[in-house]
Structure formats: C-alpha cells, structure tokens
Amino acid sequence: MSGNSSVRTAAEKAKRAALIMQGLDSRTKDRALEAIREALEKNKTQIFAANQADLERAQKENLALPLAKRLVFNEAKLAETTEGLRSLTSLPDPVGRTLSAVELDSGLELYKVACPIGVLGIIFESRPDALIQIGSLALKSGNAVLLKGGREAKETNEILARLIYDTSLASGFPEGWLQLLESREDVAAMLELDGLVDLIIPRGSNEFVRYIMDHTSIPVLGHAEGVCHLYAAGDADTAMAVRLAVDSKCQYVAVCNAMETLLVHSAAAQAFLPELKKAMNEKGVELRGCEKTGQIIDCARAAEADWRAEYLDLILAVKVVESDEEAVSHINAYGSHHTDAIVTADRKRAEYFLTYVDSADVFWNTSTRFSDGFVFGLGAEVGISTNKIHARGPVGMEGLLIYKWKLLGSGQAIADYKGAGARKFTHKKLDKPYPAQ
Amino acid sequence: MSGNSSVRTAAEKAKRAALIMQGLDSRTKDRALEAIREALEKNKTQIFAANQADLERAQKENLALPLAKRLVFNEAKLAETTEGLRSLTSLPDPVGRTLSAVELDSGLELYKVACPIGVLGIIFESRPDALIQIGSLALKSGNAVLLKGGREAKETNEILARLIYDTSLASGFPEGWLQLLESREDVAAMLELDGLVDLIIPRGSNEFVRYIMDHTSIPVLGHAEGVCHLYAAGDADTAMAVRLAVDSKCQYVAVCNAMETLLVHSAAAQAFLPELKKAMNEKGVELRGCEKTGQIIDCARAAEADWRAEYLDLILAVKVVESDEEAVSHINAYGSHHTDAIVTADRKRAEYFLTYVDSADVFWNTSTRFSDGFVFGLGAEVGISTNKIHARGPVGMEGLLIYKWKLLGSGQAIADYKGAGARKFTHKKLDKPYPAQ
After folding, report:
1. What is the mean pLDDT of residues A380-398?
2. Which candidate in A207, A320, A364, B136 could, as Cys together with A350 as Cys, close a disulfide (CB 3.0–4.6 Å)?
3. How far apart are CA B82 and CA B47, in angstroms?
C-alpha cells in the first residue's frame, strides 16, 4: 500500500488518519470488523490461491519446514481467524473508558479517559493470520498501523491487507490508517520517524527484535528473549514438579515461554533429579547440569553460557541451589524477566518467589507455558513485553491505549485558587463516567 | 553519596536495593516517611545553614534572581514540605493493588498486581524541596532512585539527601536505595546504563530535557516544551475568554502550562481582540498577530517561528482561524501536546476540540494553568509527560509503577488445555483482591 511513496509519506498519512481515528465511535469499528469477517469468507478462494503461491515459492526456496508450516492459511486458519474477529467484535470498546473522575471544585470536573496511542509500527513473523489479528486489534483500539510481515508470506499478506483496508474504508475508516511496508529497508526507515510513529512492536526472531531495540528512539514494546525458569523448591511434590517441567520444556520447545533452565533445591534434588532425567530422556531432552547435578545424575556439564541460553530446543540447563534466595538471585541475574515459576506446597515460600522474582509473569504451581494473551483472557495478543513501563507480559488491546485528561470547567482561572481568600480544591472522587454530549 | 565509586557501581547498588524494595510493606514505608519528617524538623538549623551557604555562593556568582529565589529553603518551605510528607503518608499504598483478577480454570487464578518499576534516574532543577518531594514519592512507590539536583543547591541537597537516606535505612530500607549524583558527567554516564536504570525523569530547562531524550535508550518520562493554546471559539463569551487568556498567559509566565499562542475564531475576533489587547496591554504583554489579527488590532506581525515559540515571557502569538477544524489542526501541527483549552458555550463544539486535539491535557472553559499534579489531586507530581505511552500529563505515584502477572495454580500443565478432550478456560472475572498469604 505504501506503493512508490516513501515510508515518511506513508507515516505522515498514517498520522493524519490516527488523528481522525481518535473520534471513531464503537459502532463504526464493530461494523468494520463484521464487514472484514464477511469479506475474508467471501474472498477465501483468492486468499487460498495467494497462500498457495507463497507455499510454492517457499518450497522452491527450500524454506525450513517449521517456517513453511506457519505460512499455511487454509480453511482451518480462516475459521480460527473469523472466530477471533467475532470475539473481538463482541468485546466492549476500550476507547473512551473513564479511568478516573474527580471534582476539583464545583463546576470543575476532571476525567482521565482512555484513548488510542496514535501510529503503531508492527513487525511480525511469517504467519499470515498474525496480520489479521494485529490489524483488527489496531482497528478496534483506534490506532493507525504500519505493518511489515514476513517476506515468505508476501502474497497472502497483500491480499489480506487489501481486503481489511478496502472493507474498513467502506465502513468509514480514514485513508492510510493501515499500510503495508514492503522491505527491511522500509522498516529501517520507519525506525527513524519519531514524532510520526508512536510505538514499535516487533515480533519474530530474537536477533531482529534486538536490532529494532538498538536502532530506534521510538518506544519499543516487546521482548528479545525468553529465558524462563521452573524452580522446584525443597518441599516440591516430585510428581507435580516433573510433570510441570516436562510441560514447560517440551509441550512446544520453540516458543518464548518454554522453560530453558530448571532450578531445584538441594533438599529435593536427590528424589527429583532421577525422575526428571527419566521423563526428559523419554522426550529426547538433553540435560546440562551444574556440578551438584552431576553428582546425582549422569549428564553433560553446563557451562556459564548455558545459564543465559535460550535454546528453543530439546536442551535443558539444570542447577541445584541451596536456598530460595539463591534461586531468586539466579533468575534475576540470568533470566530475561519473561516468565518464571515455582513448585511448592508452601504459600509463604511461593509468595517470596512471586514478590522478588523481577519478571513480567510469575507463576505458582503451573507451567511457564501459560503466559499468553489468549490464555490470560485478553482476547488477542500483540506480543509479550518485558518492558518495565507501559505494558508488561502478554499485551492485548489495553497495551495499545493511553489516556488524556479532560477538564470541564465554567470559567475558572488559576488565580482564583491563589493568595488571600483563595478558593480551595475539593478533590472529591466522582462515581460517574465521562459525560456523553 | 556515590562518592568515589563510579556511577555504574552506584546503579548496580540501586538495582540490588530495588529488588529488595519490591517486598517492602506499607507500614515500613509509612514509618520511614514519618521518621523523615521528624528528622527534617529536628535538623532544620543545619538545613537552613546549608541553604544559607548555597544562597551566599549564588550571590557571589551573580545568579539570576528567579533562580536564586527558587533556591531558598526556609521555615515556610519546610512547613510546606512536611505537610506534603504528612499527606503522602496518609495516602494508600499503591504497591500491591490488584488491577485485575480472573479465574482461568478451577484452582487457577490470575492476578495483575501493581509493583514498583525498579531504578529511577531523576534529574531536577534548583529547588531543594523538589528533592524531598521526589525522594518521598520514590520511597512510597518502592523505587530506588539516582538523583541529580541543581548545582546551585548543592549544600542543601546534600544534607537533605543524607537525612532522608540515613533515616530510611534506620527504618528498614536497603543500602543504596537513594543516591545523589554529583555532576553532569555522572548524568551522562547514567544515560548509558540501560539494564540497570529503568526510567529517566528529567525536569529543568527545555534544552537539558531535549539533550536527555536524545542521549539515552532508557525510557524517558517528561516533556521538552510547553507550547500551550487557548482557543476562543466563534460563540465564546468575550469576558470569559479574556479573563482565561490573561490567567493562562500572565498568572505565572515562566511555567510550561502558560499559554503561548491564542487562537480566535473569525466570528468572535471583532469583539474579542480589542478587549484582549486592552487587558494584555495592562499586563505589559506584547502581542504578535497574524495578518487578520493585524486588520482588527494594532500589533506586531507574527512570523512562522512564533507559532512554535515557547516564550515563557510576556509575549503572546495571536491567530485568527476560520473554523474549529483549523484551530485543532493548528494546535496538532504547532503545539507540543501538553495542554490546550477551548472557550465555548457549546458542549458539542467543546467535545470536538477535546476529542481531536492530541494533547495530554485538554480543557473546556478553564485556564491552561490547571495542568498540575497537585491541582489534579495526585498528591504530588514528579513531572508532566507528553509521552504517548505509560503516563501522560501530570505524573504522580501511579506513573512510578508497573505491574506483574501472578498466576496461582495447583499443578496445571498447558497440555491439559490442548487437543482432544482438552479442558476449557473459564475466564471468569473475580471480584476479589490478590489473596494475602
């Protein structure tokens, strides 16, 4: 869609669209979502044909099988996608929500009201259904968006973006609100456009996310790595700990919320480690243990680099610790502040872990694999953030919003509240939403 | 306090302190605030003496009078400060607040809980009372802080920081939680420490804030400029518009929320501009008008640069517009997204302005001077942000917090929720706070 025009021109257009989108009402947005769902279903033959072209090119170019698999957009994916659109349509509009209301004085009311951020720059991996998910989240949250999808999905992305864009324009959306960037050079150009682009959300390989973070002064929401831990405390039930370890490591090895390092308290290690080894052997997982681990089970020795490794593979680093404090310190020092879990029957011990582990998601007696926007009930997810500001952990629509302060007065000057005989602020909490016109 | 140790060492110490502070309970924090208030009162003679030394040096160095005035820390300032501490102590602890709670499944509960950000780097102007305000906000919000105050207030800042630090340590705060940086070189070094410092909050001159924003990849909360507007719509009551214009421009000219450009609809201009001129003349304000303004009143002609100028002085740019749309477009193009106000009797017209002006604070029938953390009832203010993420407008304690997701389970694996016979997530909203241990 950016066509021959430069990325700056595209961003300027998106900025103008974003200003108009601040005022889009919920009905217009939901009608557009409905129309998009219908357009996808009506045009599915063309979509599948475009996807077939991508798949054939992928085969010719010998694309790795996992990547090629993610590229597929078929009846099943379409059904999932339209189901997602339906559920997004039914969610309440987050824009315009009153976050706080206070009377400053009689006839002087202050409201903190949720509003869209503005222009988002979103870079995503090869799954074409991600385009629909991200585009529809941007639409419902009232943000303009510059999208860059995986090169492998080019044909599919183009037809999907065109359908979403054309349909939303017919439903009243402003020109330029959604545009597709075409190359990595376009992305590099976008990273320079602070003042036009308000937030960058990169998804995809760690190296790419790291590159983005290092090459822009625009705020970036995301995470470069998922070095997640499961900690079996001294009192951990062996069966539960082994079961959660297997789930955290093996249920899907290539994802950011899979466990990469297992910690076990020395008081539990003798009983636990042989069972862990048995279970992991069955799954084909290679164990790399610390010295103490090696004294209990036979396994490769972990090097310093293993404690920071995001394997995304059937490899697991294992370390014996002498205390909960040591477990927490290890996680805070070597982890990526993404997702970490403890297995213990002791609520107090769990709370120590949940309080002092400095990560977005901290879990008690569950698998690390639960950190996900759909699982959390956010409707959909634009990504998982390890930021310490704005949004942390799985990011849904709320992460695409900010607020503005609306003050409704009746002629008050600040001078009225200064000096002798000054009026006083009442600061009375109001239990009402921002008044409709 | 950083003494001879490097800024990196100081930040590492602050980081360790921040991890410990995640678990500080409300009573410890409030007791520390109480003790600090008492320590300030008990040591006031020494504080005033240190301030006297700063004032004498200022005089020797011919410091500009407004700066020297802000430097004063006397009985009146102490009373204001201790009053502020008392009110902060009485506020509820924002840390640990449950922001959302949802049952994912029976025995699997997810809580979004507010927590401190970590390590803040705060650079502030010459007012020594700002140190107490910022230090106490960091304390109550559970954040470690590296502080750099104005060079002019060196002696006063040192004794204040020492009193706050020593007293809080005696109340149970960890070593290194509050440290004073000593030079601009220290600040430059701090800007490099992403991974250790989580958020930079610069206050002070525009040039300095701009420098900070351009020289760090750490998130920055703040604003470089306050180019604020008051717009008198076509139906604006002349008396109210003039009164609010005078207040917005003149009540305190040197502040970021003072008006710099006045816009007036052509339908109101004939009646309004002569009255404005009369009132502004009385206050000694120089008017710089557009061509149409010049056809109605006698005044200097505004150049293009005037529309972007933050005068912080008795100068006002004046422009006649032909529509509300033109007013909004002008503000979005030339303003700094800080604070903008409209004067109109028409609620619908007001709402158009409040919706489409893309600024942190948008006001109807009040002076721009109301954008302030104390006025807004936030208790205290660390600054005003024109960011589009995290916090916008006046920033109080809430802006110093983020959240983490705590998931309390009973052995659930994600595999239980996949494939044939999978368990389903219930996603039932819970109306209860995060359970105490």
Report:
1. 92
2. A364
3. 14
Q: What's chain B's average pLDDT?
A: 94
Q: Which CATH homologous superfamily contains domain A228-370?
A: Aldehyde Dehydrogenase; Chain A, domain 2 (3.40.309.10)
**B364 closest CB neighbour out of A360, A364, A409:** A409
Q: According to DSSP H, which parts of B142-286 are helical?
A: 154-170, 184-190, 206-214, 238-250, 266-282
A303 CB neighbour count, 10 Å cutoff = 10
- The tokens for A40 are 């996808």
CATH topology of domain B7-214: Aldehyde Dehydrogenase; Chain A, domain 1 (3.40.605)
For residue range A227-279, what is the model confidence (pLDDT) as tens digits?
999 999 999 999 999 999 999 999 999 889 999 999 999 999 999 999 999 99
Tell me the Cα Rg of chain B: 25
CATH class of A7-221: alpha beta
DSSP B342: E
Q: Do B403 and A392 touch (CB under 8 A)?
A: yes
Task: Indicate yes or no: CB of B392 within 8 angstroms of CB of A402.
Answer: yes
* A178 exposure class (CB count in 10 Å sphere: 0-12, 13-18, 19+): buried
A437·B244 Cβ contact <8 A: no
Residue-averaged pLDDT of chain A = 94
By DSSP bridging, strand A286-289 and strand A259-265 are unpaired
State pTM to two decimals. Answer: 0.94
pLDDT in tens, A28-55: 999 999 999 999 999 999 999 999 999 9
- The answer to whether the CB of B237 falls within 8 A of the CB of B364 is no
**Which residues of chain A have a CB within 8 Å of the CB of B402?**
387-390, 392
Please give the backbone phi and psi of residue A209, each rounded to the nearest 5 degrees, phi first: -60, -45
Nearest-10 crossing angle of helices A75-90, A26-42: 170
Contact B121, B194 (CB under 8 A): no
Token digits of residue B385: 């942000």
Going by pLDDT thresholds of 50, 70 and 90, the confidence category of residue B354 is: very high
SS3 call for B159: helix
